[in-house]
């Protein structure tokens, strides 16, 4: 045989291969190739995304930025210029006694008891404060975002130090426990009214504590329940409401430090008070609206006890009804008798925004001030600040009980929260998809 | 779009030659079709990087590489003792030529994929050892040794065709 005999024999073996054969669709082959090319490009990207998510999950919790936005001084008083539009999830590790200027303080329910400081840009830090001892009631943040009052204890959030509690020195101090239902900061952030409870009997008075350490006792009201303090009409005068003997109205009273007693203002708020009601009053930041709310425990839809609150706005001079911007027409017009608004919650202190009340029970929601003609429309369900669902029964206290300035969100924290929300599922799905693609390629 | 048209043209022109080579590499028609299709898909995957002048060499290199990858193609290998459904031969003819083809096909089927690839590249496609080494992705010495071993094995498996696998073949 010639050297070409094996080659010839091999060609003979396949000489009839083309019989009856049509080439496959090139379009199909091309499409499959293109699909594989894309998947080959996607797999590294997916792997990179998974690694990035993993790194972010491991690294980010340790490094949240500290609040550093300063307060402004337009007229001698210090106020914040922004508030957080979102409060992201609590940080894992960052704790501080001096978070700096703070726009809001979030406290959790009794089971947790944790406190978080939220900067004007929405950064959250875990606030670790000295044991407040007998301090009761919710924390109150001064309008300049620097001071935090917990009962009678004042904490400087910028320097991280606490002022000593007021010394005993008055005729009532031996039986007085400071820090009852609330604290009210003056607009200039220089002093705070703190509620007080007489131990063992109904009846209390409070004190006014200055950030310079001064303490002023409020005068006692003989034979009457103490006034429910609504706030400061200006830097010097406290506005409160009393509960009359028939429990049918709340007379308006004022007190200025240095005066020997409360002074009746003339007007009264019509309000039926049940013995079990927890009545609160809050003066708007412009001083021309008074929000009165009454809370009581009711049986919830799931059989548990739920605190239901009803609220209405009044004129702080005459006590006339201003209503709420909800109801049949959903409008609030100056001078019109208004309607109640009710909500379920756990009794957090309402705040104000654009001279309208803001509910802070669980979520921060309020009304939308839209119309330049003065007609206020909106729903109480309009969310103003988004709070992460990771907090347990949150209550948010804003600086000066006000959402002031521009809403600002810490986008890195918001994205971090979103990443935590879908990062882990995406990581798992990505890994499974990557393994499936790899197995498919190997099988081929 | 130009890539796509060039690929379409290539498939139309080179389908049958590729299928013949694949038939020798795999030993059966269905396996050969699978091999060529997989080869063309792989080529399409990277067609934008293929030089049109060397497209056929690129595709054939994929073809050989895939055929040697016995892990993936083992399931397509024919049973060495089962020639009943071998598509490349027709048992209806009893001539010597047909017997020789059957014997050769059976012997080829019992070689390793790499040995078959070397024989196909060297003798069916009539490539030099250097060219075969390039298309198979191995060294020239590997081509030489694999060729020698493959021919020795064929002589053992089909001694009646010894003349076909003569020493002169391995020395080319």
Written overview of the protein:
The complex is a heterodimer of chains A (444) and B (172). Chain A is of the alpha+beta class and 444 residues long. Chain A has 3 helices and 30 strands. In chain A, a hairpin with a 6-residue loop joins strand 19 and strand 20 (290-299). Chain A is elongated, with a radius of gyration of 32 Å. Mean pLDDT of chain A is 76; it is low at 61-70, 168-176, 327-331, 333-337 and 374-378. With 172 residues, chain B is mainly alpha-helical. Chain B has helices at residues 2-26, 29-45, 55-68, 70-73, 96-109, 113-124, 129-136, 140-157, 167-170. The termini of chain B are far apart. At the A-B interface, helix 1 and helix 2 of A face helix 1, helix 2, helix 5 and helix 6 of B.
Radius of gyration of chain A equals 32 Å
* Secondary structural class of chain B: mainly alpha
Fraction of residues in β-strands of chain A: 25-35%
Based on helices, strands and strand pairing, what is the structural class of chain A? Answer: alpha+beta
Task: Categorize the overall geometry of chain B.
Answer: globular
Number of distinct helices of chain B: 9
Number of strands of chain A: 30
Determine the N-to-C terminus distance of chain A. 42 Å
Q: Return the average pLDDT of chain B rounded to an integer.
A: 80
């Amino acid at each position: 045989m010639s050297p070409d005999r094996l080659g010839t024999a091999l060609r003979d073996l396949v000489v009839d291969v083309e019989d009856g054969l049509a080439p496959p669709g090139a379009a199909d082959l091309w499409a499959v190739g293109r699909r594989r090319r894309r998947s080959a490009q996607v797999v590294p990207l997916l792997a990179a995304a998974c690694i990035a998510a993993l790194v972010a999950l491991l690294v980010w919790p340790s490094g949240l930025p500290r609040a550093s936005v300063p307060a402004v001084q337009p007229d001698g008083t210090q106020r914040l210029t922004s508030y957080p539009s979102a409060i992201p999830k609590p940080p894992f590790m960052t704790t501080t006694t001096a978070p700096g200027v703070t726009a809001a303080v979030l406290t959790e329910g009794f089971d947790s008891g944790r406190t978080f400081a939220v900067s004007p840009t929405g950064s959250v830090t875990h606030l670790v404060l000295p044991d407040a001892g007998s301090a009761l009631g919710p924390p109150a943040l001064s309008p300049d975002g620097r001071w935090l009052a917990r009962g009678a204890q004042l904490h400087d959030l910028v320097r991280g130090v606490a002022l000593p509690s007021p010394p005993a020195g008055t005729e009532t101090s031996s039986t007085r426990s400071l820090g009852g239902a609330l604290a009210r900061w003056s607009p200039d952030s220089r002093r705070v009214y703190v509620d007080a409870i007489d131990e063992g009997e109904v009846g209390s008075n409070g004190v006014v504590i200055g950030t310079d350490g001064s303490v002023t006792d409020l005068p006692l009201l003989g034979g009457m329940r103490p006034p429910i303090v609504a706030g400061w009409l200006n830097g010097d005068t406290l506005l409160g409401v009393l509960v009359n003997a028939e429990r049918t109205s709340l007379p308006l009273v004022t007190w200025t430090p240095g005066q020997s007693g409360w002074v009746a203002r003339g007007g009264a708020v019509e309000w039926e008070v049940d013995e079990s009601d927890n009545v609160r009053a809050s003066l708007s930041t412009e001083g021309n609206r008074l929000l009165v709310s009454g809370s009581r425990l009711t049986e919830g839809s799931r059989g548990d006890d739920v605190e239901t609150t009803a609220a209405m706005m009044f004129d702080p001079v005459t006590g006339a009804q201003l209503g709420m911007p909800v109801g049949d027409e959903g409008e609030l017009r100056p001078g019109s008798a208004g309607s109640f608004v009710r909500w379920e919650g756990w009794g957090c202190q309402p705040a104000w925004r654009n001279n309208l009340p803001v509910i802070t029970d669980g979520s921060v929601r309020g009304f939308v001030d839209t119309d330049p003609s003065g007609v206020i429309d909106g729903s109480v369900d309009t969310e103003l600040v988004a709070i992460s669902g990771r907090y347990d029964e949150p209550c948010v206290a804003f600086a000066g009980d006000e959402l002031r300035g521009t809403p600002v969100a810490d986008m890195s924290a918001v994205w971090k929260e979103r990443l935590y929300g879908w990062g882990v599922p995406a990581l798992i799905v990505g890994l499974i998809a990557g393994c499936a693609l790899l197995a498919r390629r190997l099988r081929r | 779009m130009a890539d796509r048209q060039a690929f379409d043209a290539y498939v139309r022109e080179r389908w049958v030659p590729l299928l013949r080579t694949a038939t020798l590499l795999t030993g059966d028609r269905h396996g050969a079709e699978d091999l060529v299709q997989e080869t063309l898909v792989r080529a399409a995957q990277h067609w934008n990087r293929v030089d049109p002048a060397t497209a056929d060499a690129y595709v054939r290199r994929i073809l050989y590489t895939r055929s040697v990858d016995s892990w993936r193609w083992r399931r397509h290998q024919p049973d060495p003792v089962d020639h009943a459904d071998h598509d490349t031969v027709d048992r209806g003819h009893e001539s010597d030529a047909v017997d020789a083809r059957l014997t050769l096909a059976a012997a080829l089927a019992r070689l390793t994929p790499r040995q078959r690839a070397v024989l196909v590249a060297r003798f069916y496609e009539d490539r030099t050892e250097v060219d075969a080494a390039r298309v198979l992705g191995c060294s020239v010495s590997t081509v030489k040794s694999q060729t020698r071993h493959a021919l020795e094995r064929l002589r053992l498996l089909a001694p009646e065709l010894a003349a076909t696998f003569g020493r002169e073949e391995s020395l080319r």
